[in-house]
Amino acid sequence: MSKKFLCVVMAIVAVSMFLFAFDCSAAPPKDKIRIGWVTSLTGHYASGVSGTNGPVYDLWIEEINAKGGIFVKEYGKRLPIELIKYDDKSDVGAMTKLLEKVILEDKVDFILPPWGTAMLYAAAPIANKHKYILLGGPGGAVKLKEIMDKVPYFFSVLNTAETQMPALANIFAELKVKKVAIIYIQDLHGIEYRDLAFPEMKKKGIDVAFAKSFPHGTKDLTPLLKDAKAANVDAFLGFVYPDEAFLVTGQAMEIGFNPKAFFLTVGPCVAPYRDVFSAKGIEGVMGSGAWNAKVSPGAKKLEEGLLKRKAVVDYWGQLFYYSSLQMFEKAIEEAGTLDQSKIRDLMATKTYDTAMGPMRFEKGFNTVHP
Fold first, then answer.
1. Taking Cα atoms as reference points, which of 329, 309, 325 lies closest to residue 317?
2. Torsions phi, psi of 285, nearest 5?
């Protein structure tokens, strides 16, 4: 081998090494954003997923991909979303294992939240451990305040019993309610609403005749309804999820239990509830809610988008979920990267315009409630 040839080879190697080093400083090629979603496709939470956040997440991804994806400056282009979905079968233990899997094995770029208050409470520490942003979708616990300083990557989106129970007690006082009966599901949702309802009712001089719990999967709530009827209460409170809301309403009708006020948490806010019992049948029923198409042009557009897809419309949480996703998208675009920490810092400190209006978080909690 001649010295001249050897010099040429060495020069080529040197240039190649230089170019390799230069290329390594740029973002590696990327064609999509992979999002992992561990949620309840079967089990007692499944009806909640299909009737609340599920249609919203599907709509958002459809809209993002229709415009080519989310623009990420780091890659100089729009990146469409690929969704990787797992069924946790409405089991907290299964959810935590699958959440670890989607992060560690599938190595997704981002995650979507599981369904329900207890699920979110269990998911928040896991997401934070891996420094993954977790938008709190359906579910919200005041109890999260105890750990929020330890889970800075978690953002609680939905309003909670802390905002609802004082308002409900005020309404009951206006209705001159004197005595209430409470039933609640045996999980964090039911327990927290029960605990916050007691002091608020007491402030208004309203007596709580009893508060009785029942497990997931209960098929007959008539014994509890008969107890409430026998106690001659003015109002009935059910801190429940959709399956139980439909069950307790139908069985109350069957036994002729019709107190002055009949309130349920998750159930009356979904359109099928009215469809099953008819508008006349549920006249006077009260439920947790937060928005309608009149709230803002963005809210009207969301409702139209869901109806066009023939999706269930939930008038409690869907505007919250959709707006938080819009905020997330805008934070990614402003950060110009998929770096979770940079996106998280923007979401924790900035205000973004959304379908709900200007949206911002303080200490991890959404401050805007229509």
1. 325
2. -70, 140
Which comes out higher in pLDDT, residue 342 or 120?
A: 342
β-sheet bridge partners, residue 183: 212, 238
Based on the number of CB atoms within 10 Å of its own CB, is 171 exposed (0-12), middle (13-18) or buried (19 or more)? middle
Q: Which residues pair with 237 in a beta bridge?
A: 182, 263
pLDDT tens, position by position, 296-311:
999 999 999 999 999 9
User: Residues near 39 by Cβ (< 8 Å), separated by ≥ 6?
Assistant: 49, 54, 85, 86, 87, 88, 112, 113, 114, 115
Best CA proximity match to 57, nearest among 304, 297, 322: 322
Locate tokens 């803002």: which residue?
296
144: confidence class by pLDDT, cuts 50, 70, 90 = confident
**What is the C-alpha to C-alpha distance for residues 84 and 106, in angstroms, rounded to an integer?**
9
Long-range contacts of 76-79 (CB under 8 A, 24+ apart): 79/30, 79/31, 79/32, 79/33
**27 band by pLDDT with thresholds 50, 70 and 90:** low
DSSP state at residue 314: B
DSSP count for the chain of H helices, then E strands: 13, 16
Parallel/antiparallel/unpaired status of strands 261-264 and 357-359: unpaired
The SS3 of residue 14 is helix
Q: Give the integer Cα–Cα distance in Å for 219 and 22.
A: 65
Residues 319-331: pLDDT tens digits?
999 999 999 999 9
Reported as a single tens digit per residue, the pLDDT across 212-267 is 999 988 999 999 999 999 999 999 999 998 889 999 999 999 999 999 999 999 88
Rounded-to-5 percentages of helix, strand, coil across the chain: 50, 20, 35
Say if CB 266 and CB 241 are below 8 A apart. yes
Average pLDDT over residues 66-82: 97
Using CA atoms, how far residue 58 sits from 132, 223, 318, 344, in Å, is 21, 39, 12, 23
Single out the residue of 302, 284, 265 nearest to residue 163, CA to CA.
Answer: 265
